[in-house]
Amino acid sequence: MPRLTFTSLDQTILNTLTPPKRYYWGIVFLLFLGVMLGASCWAYQIFTGIGVGGQNNPVAWGTYLINFVFWVGIAHSGTLISAILHLFRAGWRNPIARAAETMTVFAVCVAGLFPFIHLGRAWQVYYMLPLPNQRLLWPNFLSPLMFDVIAISTYLTVSSLFWYTGMLPDLAAVRDRSTGTRHKIFKYLSFGWTGAHEQWRHYTRGYLFFAALATPLVISVHSVVSWDFALGIVPGWHTTIFAPYFVAGAIHSGLAMVLTLMIPLRKLFKYEDIITIEVLQNVAKTIVLTGLIVGLAYGTEYFIAWYSHNSIEMEQFRWRALGDYRWGFFFMVLCNTLVPLLFLFRKVRTTIVSLFVISLIVNFGMWWERFVIIAGGVAHGFAPHAWGLYAPTMIEYGIMLGAFCLFFFLFVLFAKHLPSVSMTEMKETIAEGAGHAA
Amino acid sequence: MPPKRHIMGLFKSEDKVVAAINALKQSSYEFIRVNTPIPSHKIMDALKLKSSQVGWFTLCGGILGFIAGFALAIFTATRWNLIVSGKPIIAIIPFVVVGFEVTILGAVFGNVIGLLTQTRLPSFRWFKYYDARCSGEHFGVLAACEPMQEDGLKDFFQEQGAEVRIFETIKESPQL
Amino acid sequence: MIENDTKNMQINQTKAYWVFFILVAIGVATFIFGLASGHPERAWQAYLINFLLWSAIAQGAVLFSTVMHITKARWSGPISGLSESFTAFFPLSFILFLLLFLGRTHIFPWLHEDLHGKEVWLNIPFLFWRDFFGLLILYLLGFAYLFNALQLKFDPNQPSGKIRKYIYNAWKQNHRDPERIKGRMTIYGGLYILAFAVVLCLIGFDLVMSMDPHWISTLFGAYHFVKSFFIGLGALIILAAVIRLKQGEGSGIKPNHFHDIGKLFFGFCLLWADFFYVQLMVIYYGNIPEETHYVIVRTMLAPWNKLAWAVFIICFIGPFFILLNQRIKTKPVLMLTICSIVIVGIWLEHLLLLGPALSHDVQSIPLNLSDGLISLGFLGLMVIAVGYFLKVFPEAVPAMENN
Questions:
Q1: Is the pTM of this model over 0.80?
Q2: Which residues form the domain of A289?
């Protein structure tokens, strides 16, 4: 395997920024069509009413919330990789940090749409904003929904700033190696960064603080999202384990999405020497850990439901495994905890195909976990006469498709226009490697 | 006073840069800066810089955020002033969430402001006497000297093992 | 040079040992006095708190080494080796657990209650058997990991005692290839981590949460194992600080090791506080009486609310602000002090959780000198165990050459 050098690294990454081929724009266009489909479904909902969705009594929260939690969850492992692993000085994160952080920013953007979509009368979102008004009304910050507003806005802002700050040296590198319009654009984007020691001195400190601040933010944001459910008294929702359980689940699904994105990326952009099998293996091993944590949480919930001897709690959990949505439960346990255990076998975690397939399975399972919790919880609550089921409608499927397409649309655009691997951090890894050898 | 000549020595190895900086500091030439593609502990140690003050900006931002978060939650709660779902009007335990998030937001804003002010970015002034190879694989050490010492400085860099680039004197701008 | 150092350490240890043996004797005597007095349940309360605390310290400290190995982290250096020394407490912990059986009538408040069907789970035979097997499996996995980890470090030139000869022969029959030993370490380490999570959850549910048998919190088990890793790290820092202070440069422990493990300790302080807050927030907000009585008694009513504030300040507020500073984390003396105070704080936290259940309706916090003396006895046991391990296996403290 040829050793990476600063020049070969720069060359590989800059090659990805060359003008794209025709089929690239074809893919972008298709994704854009998907986004338009989702947008038109949403427009239809705004004009017709929230009733075009499947949510009703008793299940008032359906795919809009499920997708919200899903996308916020995916966002979290991006920050885990770029911030938390930076604090632990885990070098294997360097090849995937940039793409993971980008995944975070776009996932939060997509997630942030869903509270608007779910509002129905989206123009009334101003109720949630603490702005002085003639009715002298202010939002009540006791509400977990208000926690969400603050937490998600903070997360989006911090992630974007962290992402951009991390990219500055790379933007400078691209600027210095391009001409014409691109040179001009990157000259402004890079803020005039030249790698002077006066700049690096502050930059490394600031980046460390970013990482140290992003870490508690990750944990708190998904805890806040989990509290949308746990702070109510709904059986199956009101349980103390939700905050860490959701955080672990978020990282689980996010790591799977990292694999789903990285594997095609590395093939198309010829990053095999940069995003090595070793890196993907480490992601796979972490997926085993998060899968086990999530499995422990499932087991604990069941144990405590029995231990509590609360007939309503026990009924909710009995129904969850054996009732109308038992397929969702089955997918949840199989795909999230059992299938990732295959990664314990070296052969499985070093083969590209199995890595990719299992990553898709985990994402599928994590979507179902949110379904089982969110739709299942309210479908089978305290009062048997109020039990009811929920199924998404075509409008909801349209919006869901639009959201997925939006995420990939943004990511595909990013991949060809901005450096998708952190050149600076990879060079640091190369320099360290050379240093150790010397 | 005739304007100084600026010469940059471009190295490919961190250790050579450290040696060059140490030698430069001993010499009569003026060391200006080093441009590197990656942050380097060795080079930073050799430069013996004071530690960065960015952290203080972060801390101040965090404190302001802490106060703002709790103030926001407490203020809005007192405007309604009625008991909601059995919680006290000023309920500290839930307000910790708001306070915590806005603390982090404040700290991050402080961090960004600190970074921008301390690194003096965005600004194009840094392009003065900059070589584009410094964001690729080269480490550039910039030094200045009197016009008659120009050849001496050029030889100095070549002895240290660098490629040399001599800059045309740019008219002094008042900011740099 | 190495032999001299080891001999010096042994001589120092022999002197210091006597102090700790005396502490153990005092602890045992106080405990027996307590049993003979009119309130044996107070003595058993102290016993339970200490058993949980010191076992958690040992289990958590060993977890550090397994986690460092599995993540292939290189920053821990000699501290991983030090953390393995806490396995010496495992047999003691196991025996202490068995002795807990003797106090069962005084420890478990639910023995005389109507449990409405929970007796299937909460009955003495089942509880003791499952915790017995849980701890047994955990400790055996810890020893299996230790066996392989030590083999990599073993220096056959050290003066041998019986134990070393016995283990040396066992190693001769084991694989010699370092790669296979490391593979074994990965397997046993991974299993230890799994067992740690499951068994400590179980202990948390069985020996702490069930004291209030009608209260539940799904996170309680995980809270217990996070707490355990937290104090395990604290004890590890104390041990590293002691060794560094005694041996100076020769210990191989550098200031940046302290900085790194100090940061990890700080991180787990935040995580412990987060797990505490998460439970508090959900229970507070739901306001369901079956859940809130537990929290109200402990955090809002006298006399326990004072203890709750004390725990909060000692274990979170203090360490948070103090450990933000980088330089403090690199000084062994300061870290030793801070970690000791935090461990005392967590002792108080155990009292906060268990006390209201074991001592119903008390007017003042049931804490007096005898609790302190019994705790010192347990401290003595821990120091003797770890010290003995370090005496028998000095390789756990590599001198600079051995790095």
A1: yes
A2: 6-130+138-431
